[in-house]
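Before the break, one more example. Copy the sequence into your notebook; we will annotate it together after we see the structure.
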Amino acid sequence: MKIVTIEQMRKLERRSEEAGVSTDALMENAGLATATAARRHLEQAIGRRFTGQPVLVLAGPGNNGADGLVAARHLHKWFARPLVYLVRPARDADPKLDSVRALGVPIVDSANDVGQAGLRRALATTQMVVDALLGISKVRPIEGVMKAVLAELASVKAQRPALFILALDIPSGLNADTGQADPACVAADVTITLGYPKVGLFMPPGSDLRGLLETADIGAPPGLDTDVRLDLMTPEWAKDLLPKRPQSAHKGTFGRALVVAGSRNYIGAAHLAAGGAIRVGTGLVTLALPESLRASASARAAEPTYLPLAESAPGVPAAEAGPLILDNLSQYDALLVGCGLGQASFTRLMVERVLFSQGGAKPTIVDADGLNILAMTTGFWRRFPAKAILTPHPGEMARLLGRPGPPTPQERIAVATQSAASWNKVVVLKGAYTVVAYPDGRAMLSPFANPGLASAGTGDVLAGAIAGLLSQGLSLEDAAALGVYLHGAAGELVRGELGDMGMIASDLLPALPKAIKALRSS
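Here is what the structure looks like once it is written out:
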């Protein structure tokens, strides 16, 4: 599913009109979709049919307000009791308003509502408010009557949290490109975004103000969006990418992954990375770690095989471990380097030997300390030509770029896509709504934001999951994106069971196959 900017959405609307679907038709479809969603959510909220239930529609200027009027018309026909509160100058010709008025729907004009008495009465009795005040047009500071209306809505919502706010396309006052919000913007319980999700809905504070996000099909002709380079990961897309599991398979069918991870201070990282690869279905995972850590690691994880590495000190890989890894690499379909390795000088020499010597021979994932070691080499991508996936968190991304601080939420997509193109690598920029960027300029956005994943070790599980999918034959682009999706879906399963406080990285391991099972059966 494409994610668009304001300009891209305007261009798609123009293309729709040129293809024979008028703006009015799009508006009618948008209003119908909004009314349908309002009906469904109101019935869920009150636990019964919504017949006779009051719904307040706040209608502003422009197409967003007109969409709201269409929604009010349908709600009235379905036997709800909509009331329209107009926050816009009077017009001589207003067919959408005339059609609502002809049905006898009550209409209150803010220009004649002394002291907002009519608004207060409506808010006191309604179960749901449809915010159709402002759409995705260029956001200016909200002032005057509009500001007062939103302030009253915010006050009532604070006093009565059960009041359900449904935003039409975007919460009023939210910038659809940046996610920045006017102080008057009121958080929605649900946002019904029209046609395509808007990029600002995935950037804070917009991502927090939007509530549950749903996308409504408004009837734009297919095939008009091929030049949009940003996609949202969806369950349908993920299900299609899952590796096939033939009944006649053996462990060799599902690939072999070599995970170079762990040091004396970070033994758990090796376990989590190997476990991530195993839990997405890899046939064989070999864990390459310092010799003295093998006993403790194998006691915790019986499934991997082990490649003991020479040590420069107890639990610290030595430089001469590099040739051993390279000698064994031909046996594997994917290589993961970096989780919990540390940055000791001899470890750095080992990592550089492995990454800078293998050329394009083996699909590779570089994570954690592997990234920090790469960042120590100016122009690392020129010495590291292999087909690779880099999986930085924002701090690691800053080090790779040599910039003083991590990219802001508004910069993340651009930084990831520009870096992927410059380095000729797949870049997974982790965080809420993780960005997966490809060298050709395309990018995908994860639909998941989960504070429970903000804990040590979850990135190791993700890197392992990507390695496991890569070893099963997926391309670098597909393995990176599907790994991100499954990792996020597993996090949602754990959050549903445990909540998002106290979730730990190892909780994700048994949740990964559950997420895959749920996806296959969806």
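The chain is about 40% helix and 15% strand. The CA atoms of residues 262 and 270 lie 5 Å apart. Try to locate both features in your own notes.
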